[in-house]
TrEMBL record:
<feature type="transmembrane region" description="Helical">
    <location>
        <begin position="28"/>
        <end position="50"/>
    </location>
</feature>
<keyword id="KW-0812">Transmembrane</keyword>
<feature type="transmembrane region" description="Helical">
    <location>
        <begin position="207"/>
        <end position="228"/>
    </location>
</feature>
<feature type="transmembrane region" description="Helical">
    <location>
        <begin position="234"/>
        <end position="257"/>
    </location>
</feature>
<feature type="transmembrane region" description="Helical">
    <location>
        <begin position="56"/>
        <end position="82"/>
    </location>
</feature>
<feature type="transmembrane region" description="Helical">
    <location>
        <begin position="121"/>
        <end position="138"/>
    </location>
</feature>
<keyword id="KW-1133">Transmembrane helix</keyword>
<keyword id="KW-0472">Membrane</keyword>
<dbReference type="InterPro" id="IPR010390">
    <property type="entry name" value="ABC-2_transporter-like"/>
</dbReference>
<dbReference type="Pfam" id="PF06182">
    <property type="entry name" value="ABC2_membrane_6"/>
</dbReference>
<feature type="transmembrane region" description="Helical">
    <location>
        <begin position="150"/>
        <end position="176"/>
    </location>
</feature>
<protein>
    <submittedName>
        <fullName>Transporter</fullName>
    </submittedName>
</protein>
Length: 269
């Protein structure tokens, strides 16, 4: 009964947030369209680079677009679900987190559902359309495995990005003005993932691609969809490891979040 009550409370929080943000329809749709256009600029940036070079890291324009499209879908999904968590420092600075902690519900679900931004769903739709158009351009040889991969990879990538969002926001429990530090890993990770990892120097690639798992968001799944070997010599089986990387990412983020909440001692306001 208690679990059912919590679910009803989260549903009420989400419904109230959606109603509040869609009260002014023109403003809502303007925000949704403008955020979609801004997100589309990431794809345009990839195309602009090909005006100066015929290949990036050994990949053609269509192949790079597939990597960027997979990344954009994954990031848009994560941003739509937990992107608002990067305002954690404002909750701590203003003391609003104290009131959330007093409620008999999970802290993270309250933050996610209580500040949900439906306008961000426009980015998800836009990035999905770009991915579909890119796949139509590339026209890979479809198999059951590739269909499963093109559906599962963005979901696993979204879980990896969401884990980074949550872990990055947790830093605010120790350093309130940690926004730029967290953004270096969330939005910086997105920018890293937009391009083939063969572009980057060795130490940078080891930290972001393998240490934080961003190579498994788009790069390796794209290699499998394209049917091309990794120029870095990694085994082809890595293309199917995105869910296996997402699971420890979630566990690590959950552990960091739990430690952060227990460490929090209120603002004293």
């Amino acid at each position: 009964m208690a679990d059912r009550g919590r679910v009803s409370a989260y549903r009420a929080l989400l419904a109230a947030q959606v109603r509040a943000q869609t009260q002014y329809r023109f403003s809502f749709w303007l925000d949704a369209v403008s955020s979609s256009v801004v997100s589309l600029l990431d794809i345009v940036a990839v195309l602009v680079l090909f005006r100066a070079t015929p290949a990036l890291g050994g990949f053609s324009v269509a192949q790079c677009l597939l990597i960027a499209s997979l990344c954009n879908v994954a990031f848009s999904l994560a941003d739509a679900v937990v992107g608002n968590i990067d305002t954690m420092r404002q909750y701590i600075r203003t003391g609003r987190l104290d009131s959330i902690l007093l409620r008999p519900m999970g802290v993270l679900p309250q933050l996610v559902f209580g500040d949900f931004a439906p306008r961000r769903l426009g980015r998800v739709l836009q990035s999905g359309l770009v991915l579909a158009a890119t796949l139509a351009w590339i026209d890979p040889q479809w198999t059951v495995g590739r269909v499963v991969l093109v559906l599962a990879a963005p979901l696993a990538g979204a879980v990896i990005f969401a884990s980074v969002f949550v872990a990055g926001s947790t830093v605010a429990f120790w350093f309130v003005e940690s926004g730029e530090f967290a953004n270096a890993f969330t939005y910086g990770g997105r920018d890293f993932t937009l391009y083939p990892i063969s572009l980057y120097p060795g130490w940078f690639r080891k930290v972001f691609a393998y240490g934080l798992g961003f190579a498994f968001v788009a790069y390796y799944p794209a290699l499998a969809l394209l049917g091309v070997p990794d120029p870095l010599g990694a085994p082809a089986a890595l293309a199917w490891c995105s869910p296996l990387v997402a699971v420890p990412a979630v566990l690590a983020a959950a552990l960091v979040w739990r430690v952060g909440v227990r460490h929090y001692r209120s603002t004293g306001s």
